[in-house]
Write a sequence for this structure.
């Protein structure tokens, strides 16, 4: 049983590190571009407060949350 738990924890850590690296890479790419005003997923407006807090963001808070859940559970 411990082996299964160890593998699950290792997979979780791998997914987390991949998500962090992707977020970091996207931030670098996006910081070179203007921050989006429309969400790349739902095409809704990204609030000004979010654009100021997260320069280079491309998703609204709701879509970003869903995206991170998908990454966490390995669906992407």
């Amino acid at each position: 049983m411990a082996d299964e738990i160890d593998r699950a924890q290792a997979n979780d850590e791998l997914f987390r590190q991949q998500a962090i690296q992707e977020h970091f890479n996207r931030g670098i790419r996006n910081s070179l571009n203007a921050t989006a005003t429309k969400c790349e997923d739902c095409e809704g407006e990204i609030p000004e407060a979010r654009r100021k807090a997260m320069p280079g963001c491309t998703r609204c808070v709701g879509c970003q949350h869903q995206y991170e859940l998908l990454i966490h559970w390995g669906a992407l």
Summary: The mean pLDDT is 83.
